[in-house]
Design a protein that fits this description.
The protein is built from six helices and four strands, in the order βαβααααβαβ. By secondary structure, the chain is an alpha+beta fold. The longest helix is centred in the middle third of the chain and has 25 residues.
Length: about 170
């Protein structure tokens, strides 16, 4: 999946773009909108905390750091067994999994309270009243969706593509 970023000048344009995306088989759950707080999106698909915060990148970093720390702790426990207990490779795996879980949890608590760093460059436009659209599409549909926006909505600004998106949440 790739995340496309579009800036629409207002809610009525956004509504037309969303309609066209839906008619072109982009599922509503793959469309996320961010607007200034006083701009009513009504029935349009608003972005969730997962899109608005640094939750996913923090979760990924926390899981990786926790797994590495847990694996090192497991290796130490195998090399220097506590109280004469014999430990095997399962201890390393278990410690790595426990570390990954703890790291992901701890980092996600911090990430959910931090605004999404990828959206920083759009803050001024959103504060000026534009609507930021985050549209998740399969890699092979990026050009098709961008061409649709260019052809039918020249007033919208195509603002880039995120090179990789996790498949969750």
């Amino acid at each position: 999946m790739r995340r496309l970023y579009f800036l629409a000048p207002d809610v009525s344009t956004t509504r037309r773009i969303v309609r066209d995306l839906l008619l072109n088989h982009v599922a509503e759950e793959h469309i996320h909108l961010i607007a200034r707080r006083d701009v009513p999106l009504e029935d349009l698909p608003e972005a969730s905390m997962a899109q608005k915060s640094d939750l996913i990148p923090a979760l990924e970093r926390g899981a990786a750091a926790g797994a590495a720390t847990g694996a090192v702790a497991g290796l130490v426990a195998v090399a220097v067994p506590p109280a004469g207990i014999v430990l095997g490779g399962g201890a390393v795996l278990g410690a790595a999994l426990a570390g990954a879980g703890f790291g992901a949890w701890a980092a996600s608590m911090m990430g959910i309270s931090t605004p999404n760093s990828r959206l920083k460059k759009f803050e001024e436009a959103v504060e000026a009243g534009q609507v930021l659209m985050l549209v998740d599409v399969k890699r092979g549909r990026v050009d098709e969706v961008e061409a649709l926006i260019r052809a039918h909505h020249p007033e919208a600004t195509i603002s880039g593509t995120e090179p990789h998106m996790p498949n969750f949440p």
